[in-house]
Amino acid sequence: MPDALPLTLSRRRWLAALAGASTLGATGLAAARPRQPRSATAALPKLRLLAHGSLPTGTEFKGTLIGGLSGLSWDAATNLWYALSDDRSRHAPARVYVFRLPSPADGQPFVPQWVDVITLRGPDGQPYPRHSVDPEALALRLDAATGQTTLLWTSEGDIRARIPPSLQEVTLEGRWLRSFHLPRQLTDIGRLGRGPRHNDTLEGLALTPDGRHVWAAMEGALNQDGDHLTPGAPPGLCRITRLDLVSGEADRQIAYLPEARPFGPLMPQGSVESGISEILMPDPDLLWVLERAWHMTTGVSARLYEVDLTRAANTLTIDTLRPRRTRAAPKRLILDLRQSGLPHIDNFEAMAWGPTLPSGHRCLVLCTDDNFNPLQVTQFAAFEVA
């Protein structure tokens, strides 16, 4: 990383104090007033498309092919963006891109200005070997205790090669710090009919507003939890797990029911893919879930849902989720991206908050994973959240 990128010590102390104060404030409110379930009739936010842009196919930076952007995060202290590539160390070692984005109100093409590339390293200090990880989700964390800014990232692993999914924490230079202890349900591979399915594991990551926890979402259902990619059939329940950032242990989990696959008309034949592609937290009681579906005849669809965490049961100790017995978290549709005004909908897999807009509203930025496929694009889109 360039010398200008890391935070200065004084700045770290200031940010740590600020984060600590917000954490104490949130804790005090929680103790004084138990959270009440949200009203099912409460107004939903409205999203308005502000800007969008796409990268030319084959864009390179610092000797790496840019593509597969599946995780996104913004650092308010430096106004820098971080994007995780899901390249399994094939085109270049597993990595994170650092860049700047123009203000969506400037009228400029909404495309990155590249700053740096971070090579992710394992516990041995070396870049990850080919096919040893499958990076998918990213979150930028400010540790209130140390003032250090770090990156959290997930790997889907490789179930066929008996490599389980994982959640890691690294420095802004990519140096490995620790691995989190995931529930056994998510890492139980090698047993027939149990555990995660190949290429269907940890796909979304979202920090809680107080910075004390992180939620990690499975893309699809575990083998024991339901259907697997049958067009038009009721899908299985997906697990979204909360982990404590101090202990590294899971302390809560919810069940989430995606839409039937794929969105739109029933297509009984042909390849189909669907599931959770990203999550984000607008406040302590709500989770936003981005669902993405693809069918060979209808193309890509993407929808954003709001989930009420106050009405979700804890499934952490439940070995098998059954739709008729397990209460899924209630959800409401916020936006169908096919109706957002975007001229093209590609494989949206990344989502993050950006700088506050001149209106005072939040800015939501989404990005697509082009799968290193020349027929797809890396696409950025910015929305005003009113």
Account of the protein in words:
Residues 65-372 form the Phytase-like domain. It holds the Pfam family Phytase-like. This is Esterase-like activity of phytase family protein. With 386 residues, this protein is mainly β. It has a single domain (43-385), classed as Tachylectin-2, Chain A (5 Propeller), CATH 2.115.10. The protein is 7% helix and 38% strand. It is built from two helices and 22 strands. It has helices at 9-32, 184-187, and strands at 47-54, 60-61, 64-65, 69-75, 80-85, 95-100, 113-119, 135-142, 149-155, 166-171, 176-179, 202-207, 213-218, 238-244, 250-256, 272-283, 286-295, 299-308, 331-336, 348-354, 362-368, 379-385. The strands form six sheets. The protein has a four-stranded antiparallel β-sheet, with no helix packed on it. The chain has a four-stranded antiparallel β-sheet with strand order 4-5-6-7, with no helix packed on it. The longest helix has 24 residues, at 9-32. It is globular. Residues 1-34 have low confidence and may be disordered.
Uncertain segments are: 1-34
At the fold tier of CATH, the topology name is Tachylectin-2, Chain A
Structural class per helix/strand content? Answer: mainly beta
CATH class assignment: Mainly Beta
List the helices and strands and how they pair.
Blueprint: H1 9-32, E1 47-54, E2 60-61, E3 64-65, E4 69-75, E5 80-85, E6 95-100, E7 113-119, E8 135-142, E9 149-155, E10 166-171, E11 176-179, H2 184-187, E12 202-207, E13 213-218, E14 238-244, E15 250-256, E16 272-283, E17 286-295, E18 299-308, E19 331-336, E20 348-354, E21 362-368, E22 379-385
Antiparallel strand pairs: 1-22, 2-3, 4-5, 5-6, 6-7, 8-9, 9-10, 10-11, 12-13, 13-14, 14-15, 16-17, 17-18, 18-19, 20-21, 21-22
